[in-house]
Model the fold of this input.
Amino acid sequence: MTIDGRIELALPDLVRDELQRVLTSKLGFDEQHARAASTLLTGIATLRPGPPRSIEAITGDPADDAILACAVEAGVDVLATGDRRHLLPLGEHRGVRLLTPQATLAELRARD
Done:
């Protein structure tokens, strides 16, 4: 989300916990490095929304559905994700654009 041209990181606990799980189980981070990444993001997050009130079955993966619901409920503009299987194919959902981190950064650079 951007406010006055600034990037605002929304990081619900549910998303932080899923990121930490993916870092260890899928990307091979050890627990210490996954916790360090989680702590770093928690420290820079400007918004800490609570869990979503409802979760729609959209993606075929309950964890990804929960992340998508968090993004929608938080009112973010972009959900940056590397999930090419469940999230990125959606392109957009309820006003939330789903972009790779690289595409997100490219858009931000283009604004300068």
